[in-house]
Design goal:
It contains two helices and 16 strands. By secondary structure, the chain is mainly β. Pfam families: Copper-bind, Por_Secre_tail.
């Protein structure tokens, strides 16, 4: 019964956070015409969406790691005649390069995805700092002004609602959570308050 209740909580958390964060994304447009991407360089935030619109000619977007080995993730589409539209959500921070395979010498672009140093939201103003985002190995949670004493436990859930971590919270002002063994994905945390309420948020695992 407890496991079922936790999954219901997790699904509710995921649904609410998805609805809230869906409106928080910024959409960026890149125009694709004969021999150019406009703008050719973009600086965006983690989670933003870039949409390429081909209005003239035969082109594609190739940002695969097979072509650009330093790209944090692959993206791109196949060569097609105009008109077409292609979108990609940049969930992983870093420096990306891409090209048109038909015109690699003249059609190249770059995208810089800024790294979030902490998860922003209502919890930040309440004296909670959770970082880094994305996390590779260890997730750190700091409580200001003895806020740790107001929480009894923390749980972390995956996208299916399965609990992957649970730990009681004492009077410590900082928690260290090992997430290195978890696969890259979006996770959700729930801080259970001693007064019966819950604070929730998201964690991106790279």
């Amino acid at each position: 019964m407890k496991t079922t209740t936790n999954k219901i909580w997790a699904v509710a958390i995921i649904t609410v956070l998805f609805l809230v964060n869906a409106g928080a994304q910024t959409n960026w447009d890149v125009t694709v015409t004969n021999f150019s991407f406009t703008p050719a360089s973009l600086t965006i935030d983690q989670g933003d969406v870039v949409t390429w619109n081909n209005t003239l000619g035969t082109h594609n977007v190739n940002g695969t790691t097979a072509t650009f080995s330093n790209n944090p993730a692959s993206f791109g589409n196949s060569l097609q005649n105009a008109p077409w539209q292609y979108s990609f959500t940049f969930d992983i921070a870093g420096e990306y390069s891409y090209q048109c395979d038909q015109h690699p010498g003249s059609m190249q672009g770059t995208i810089t995805v800024n790294t979030a140093t902490s998860i922003t939201g209502d919890n930040d103003k309440d004296g909670i700092k959770i970082y880094p985002s994305p996390v590779r190995e260890y997730l750190f949670i700091e409580f200001n002004d003895n806020r740790a004493t107001t929480y009894s436990s923390i749980q972390i859930f995956d996208l299916t609602g399965q609990m992957v971590f649970s730990q009681p919270i004492g009077s410590n002002d900082k928690l260290t959570i090992n997430m290195g063994h978890l696969p890259p994905s979006l996770y959700f945390y729930r801080l259970q308050n001693t007064n019966g309420s819950n604070d929730t948020g998201k964690v991106l695992k790279k």
